[in-house]
């Protein structure tokens, strides 16, 4: 497989974690945008229309003759191959809900991180996101994983989003014991633990160079 994305964690990090957990062999192809003020992206734009993709975009995953774009579609593609989309109907419904709630969560995060007025917006975001994270905590409850007893693709997405928010303000997650335990449980999965200890694991940057937070 070939996974391609910018040289950041961003949308690709949950996919990287999922590929590592499932033991898939893959090339982690990273595009680098230029420095300020132009942030040149020609390294991507020069080739995107030459790829055999219906909707060329980053991230993309190439698996033989199969080309997949859109991060959730990539997660589901890998999830189907490894039975990580829920074992029961109730789990599958919870996966569907969490997939979309997590994207709303991420969209709000991205709006903050890339906003030129980040410093002015941060306090208001921290106040409002506490309620959002509290709802995720309530949804998880005393379950092992977000869908239920079984690990699914949404756990990879939620782990990454919670980890990024911890870097903004650790208390956001630490206020919820079940979310803290969820993250520790995820990190202790043997393939994840090995990946995070390796030199292949990307600790940063979270966001691209034009971001006001997480670009370091």
From TrEMBL:
<dbReference type="InterPro" id="IPR040079">
    <property type="entry name" value="Glutathione_S-Trfase"/>
</dbReference>
<dbReference type="InterPro" id="IPR050213">
    <property type="entry name" value="GST_superfamily"/>
</dbReference>
<comment type="function">
    <text>Conjugation of reduced glutathione to a wide number of exogenous and endogenous hydrophobic electrophiles.</text>
</comment>
<comment type="similarity">
    <text>Belongs to the GST superfamily. Mu family.</text>
</comment>
<protein>
    <recommendedName>
        <fullName>Glutathione S-transferase</fullName>
        <ecNumber>2.5.1.18</ecNumber>
    </recommendedName>
</protein>
<dbReference type="InterPro" id="IPR010987">
    <property type="entry name" value="Glutathione-S-Trfase_C-like"/>
</dbReference>
<dbReference type="InterPro" id="IPR004045">
    <property type="entry name" value="Glutathione_S-Trfase_N"/>
</dbReference>
<dbReference type="Pfam" id="PF02798">
    <property type="entry name" value="GST_N"/>
</dbReference>
<dbReference type="InterPro" id="IPR003081">
    <property type="entry name" value="GST_mu"/>
</dbReference>
<dbReference type="InterPro" id="IPR036282">
    <property type="entry name" value="Glutathione-S-Trfase_C_sf"/>
</dbReference>
<dbReference type="GO" id="GO:0004364">
    <property type="term" value="F:glutathione transferase activity"/>
</dbReference>
<feature type="domain" description="GST C-terminal">
    <location>
        <begin position="88"/>
        <end position="206"/>
    </location>
</feature>
<feature type="domain" description="GST N-terminal">
    <location>
        <begin position="1"/>
        <end position="86"/>
    </location>
</feature>
<dbReference type="GO" id="GO:0006749">
    <property type="term" value="P:glutathione metabolic process"/>
</dbReference>
<dbReference type="InterPro" id="IPR004046">
    <property type="entry name" value="GST_C"/>
</dbReference>
<dbReference type="Pfam" id="PF14497">
    <property type="entry name" value="GST_C_3"/>
</dbReference>
<keyword id="KW-0808">Transferase</keyword>
<dbReference type="InterPro" id="IPR036249">
    <property type="entry name" value="Thioredoxin-like_sf"/>
</dbReference>
């Amino acid at each position: 497989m070939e996974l391609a994305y910018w040289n950041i964690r961003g949308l690709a990090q949950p996919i990287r974690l999922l590929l590592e957990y499932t033991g898939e062999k893959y090339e982690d192809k990273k595009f680098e945008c230029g420095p300020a003020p132009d942030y040149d992206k020609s390294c991507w734009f020069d080739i995107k229309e030459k790829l055999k993709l219906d909707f060329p975009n980053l991230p993309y995953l190439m698996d033989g003759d199969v080309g997949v774009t859109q991060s959730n579609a990539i997660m589901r593609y890998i999830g189907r191959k490894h039975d990580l989309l829920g074992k029961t109907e109730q789990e599958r419904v919870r996966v569907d809900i969490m997939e979309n709630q997590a994207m709303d969560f991420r969209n709000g995060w991205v709006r903050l991180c890339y906003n030129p007025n980040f410093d002015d917006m941060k306090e208001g975001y921290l106040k409002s996101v506490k309620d959002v994270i509290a709802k995720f905590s309530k949804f998880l409850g005393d379950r092992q994983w977000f869908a239920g007893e079984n690990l699914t693709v949404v756990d990879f997405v939620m782990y990454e989003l919670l980890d990024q928010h911890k870097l903004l303000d650790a208390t956001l997650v630490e206020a919820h014991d079940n979310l803290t335990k969820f993250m520790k449980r995820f990190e202790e999965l043997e393939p994840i633990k090995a990946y995070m200890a390796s030199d292949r694991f990307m600790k940063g940057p979270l966001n691209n160079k034009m971001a006001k937070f997480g670009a370091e």
